[in-house]
Design brief:
GO molecular function: tyrosine-tRNA ligase activity
Strand content: 5-15%
Family: Belongs to the class-I aminoacyl-tRNA synthetase family. TyrS type 1 subfamily.
Subunit structure: Homodimer.
Helix content: 40-55%
Subcellular location: Cytoplasm
Keywords: Aminoacyl-tRNA synthetase, ATP-binding, Cytoplasm, Ligase, Nucleotide-binding, Protein biosynthesis, RNA-binding
Number of strands: 15
Shape: elongated
Oligomer: single chain
Low-confidence stretches: none
Radius of gyration: 26 Å
Length: 417
């Protein structure tokens, strides 16, 4: 199957500058393409992952992707999708973020010999102001830029000259990569359409209108309820395991709505059409088994964090489902309960009733005694029904944690100080 046909089946294409031309181009030869990310933070979240999954698909189809880290454009600020001016970061912060994102990208894609990494600071930092104005600024029409959504959406509230020039800098990226690496296609999110077409316009002005270069954007990802994909009550789902643990990452995918899961299988996995069709039938015929969600969680977690992290996430999931938390290691406890309500306790043994009241897990001694007696309290997986029980924080989990559960689902992580 042609790569464009596959992306169409997966619902992964929003706009193309020349759909027929790009399909013909990719059928006849291997091409080079690129997608960029600006280092506005030290980690990508799953929303960033979508276009780079497409890059991986191109690579598997025999093409040569280039991943661009925007060390220069990241210091300027992309106005795309923003209602106000971006706060500029220090160059030290930008460079630290470049290093972090490069490491993250290489972990995701660096095992392949057919994916290259570039940083636009390497060429944009060498352009003087006069050269920028004479060689590129002269070729860009202000009226055309003002008509682009990326700029027009900001005219009412205002846009600085700094962010206004971002579109030109990204156009220079496409031009440079086209000249130096024969890159013919740029991929980006739906909000990058104006930047991508500006790059194509610049190439056509310099190299001629017949130069074969293309642009392709991905759709804006929305959940079935209309809300933005990738956000939870706790914030963004990060690719950095220090920000979102592999267990939390796995759980995010495992808990997807039946209405969304097939779409996400197409977007975020490399499963073929036959297997996805079978999983789609399972959603319709036996949704209670959640086979599609489980497969989705397995595939994406393995791709981002690796097989070992996936197995750990599955182990934690199975243990929490059974309630036998004593099988967890201290590090697994941290992953599993990192977002659970937490309390601080001393390292000395303490009566269970006093502990529950002092940590405010229970509102009163009367309620605490009642819940203990009724079997509603478990300590480190053991149901405790004696009100004179002494909780020893050093007994398990390297003396770092005590896991307290009230009822069936209310977990509290007591951190030993």
């Amino acid at each position: 199957m042609n790569i464009i046909d596959e992306l169409t089946w997966r619902g992964a294409i929003n706009q193309q500058t020349d759909a027929e031309g790009l399909k013909e181009l990719t059928e006849n030869k291997s091409i080079s393409l690129y997608c960029g990310v600006d280092p506005t933070g030290d980690s990508m979240h799953i929303g960033h992952l979508i276009p780079f999954m497409m890059m991986k698909r191109f690579e598997l189809a025999g093409h040569h992707p280039y991943i661009l880290i925007g060390g220069a454009t990241g210091s300027i600020g992309d106005p795309s999708g923003r209602k106000s001016e971006r706060q500029l970061q220090t160059m030290e912060t930008v460079q630290a973020n470049v290093k972090a994102l490069t490491h993250q990208m290489q972990k995701l894609f660096g095992g392949s010999s057919n994916i290259s990494f570039v940083n636009n600071y390497d060429w944009l930092s060498k352009i003087s102001l006069l050269d920028f104005l004479r060689d590129y600024g002269k070729l860009v029409n202000i009226n055309t830029m003002l008509a682009k959504d990326i700029v027009a959406s900001r005219l009412d509230v205002g846009i600085s000259f700094t962010e206004f020039t971002y579109q030109i800098l990204q156009s220079v990226d496409f031009l440079t990569l086209h000249h130096e690496h024969d890159i013919q296609l740029q991929i980006g999110g739906a909000d990058q359409w104006g930047n991508i077409t500006s790059g194509i316009d610049l190439i056509h002005k310099i190299d001629g209108a017949d130069e074969k270069v293309y642009g392709l954007t991905i759709p804006l990802m929305l959940k079935a309820d209309g809300t933005k994909f990738g956000k939870t009550a706790g914030g963004a789902i990060w690719l950095d395991p220090e920000k979102t643990s592999p267990y939390e990452f796995y759980q995010f995918w495992l808990n997807q709505d039946d209405r969304d899961v097939v779409k996400y299988l197409k977007y975020f996995t490399f499963l073929d059409q036959d297997e996805i069709a079978e999983l789609e039938q399972s959603v319709k015929n036996e949704p209670e088994k959640r086979l599609a969600q489980t497969r989705l969680a397995e595939e994406v977690t393995k791709f981002v964090h690796g097989q070992e992290a996936l197995e750990t996430a599955q182990k934690i999931t199975n243990i929490l489902f059974s309630g036998n938390v004593k099988e967890l290691s201290a590090s697994e406890v941290q992953d599993a309960f990192g977002k659970a309500p937490s309390v601080s306790i001393a390292s000395e043994p303490k009566n269970i009733v006093n502990l529950l009241v002092e940590t405010e897990i229970e509102p009163s001694k009367r309620q605490a005694r009642e819940d203990v007696t009724n079997g509603a309290i478990t300590i480190n997986g053991d149901r405790i029904q004696e009100t004179d029980f002494e909780v020893d924080p050093s007994a398990q989990f390297d003396g770092k944690f005590v896991i307290i559960r009230r009822g069936k689902k209310n977990y509290f992580l007591a951190k030993v100080r």
